[in-house]
Amino acid sequence: MPSRMIDGYDLNYAESGQGAPLVLVHGTLGDQRYWAPQMGPLGAHYHVMALSMRHCWPGRWEDGGDFTIDRHVADLAGFIRALDAGPVRLIGHSRGGHIAFRLAERHPDLLRALVLAEPGGELDESLGGKPAGSGRQAGAFAEAAALVAAGDIEGGLRRVAEHTGGPGAWERRSEARKQIGRDNVRTLLGQIHERRAPYSRAAAEAIRTPTLLVVGEKTLPNFVANADALERHIAGAERVGIPDAAHPMSDENPGAFNAAVLAFLERH
Known about the structure:
- This protein is of the alpha/beta class.
- It is built from 12 helices and 8 strands.
- An 8-stranded mixed sheet has the order 1-2-4-3-5-6-7-8, with helices on both faces.
- A hairpin with a 2-residue loop joins strand 1 (3-6) and strand 2.
- The longest helix has 15 residues, at 69-83.
- The chain starts with a strand and ends with a helix.
- Keywords: Hydrolase.
- InterPro entries: AB_hydrolase_1, AB_hydrolase_fold, Carboxylesterase_BioH.
- Residues 21-254 form the AB hydrolase-1 domain.
- This is Alpha/beta hydrolase.
- Pfam families: Abhydrolase_1.
């Protein structure tokens, strides 16, 4: 498994294909394996690299480890610079979409095109959200982490799955996706301290990278609200809906997801 040393940490990744670099960033409880349905189809056009973020499988969570948004944004920036291949195309899903958004905000020189697949997080009041600290997400993840800390692994995983996918979401997942969650479950103990800032209008308006927002047509309202707000304030943002799919749209309808992403990337 290839890796690159970034700020003292071996950042592992899967890769496929040749050509211009395309970097993929997974979400909560994920790792590079989440992107398995994309590796072949996208690798036919690009040099695809799917990262496992710091402390995610095949790495492991260590108590006291650094699992903040800022740390992961810095890792992503360091990885892209280490490629020494110029600006890259970047896809982020859920929490990975938030990381990708922050990279575009802080390091626009590193990006040629940006795909945000239901970026996770909250909206601040400038985007019609609630006052800081009153969002649903932090509470759901804290509940899940408490279950994991108490030894109820499946209960914690079910809580996160239902927060992102509604009732019964955990039971509907394939065994392969459930195992990815189990392999990364202790990262929840770090994620509750990740200090994820809400999206703001100013931050969205600062994005100048060509951007595609991808939303599953069966997804929950909070992800739709994020996409609506970012679409309004990221200049020139495009948007596509993925039929017959909810939050994990790249897994539930990979054909439609891959086609939409490729069409956008080939224009940028």
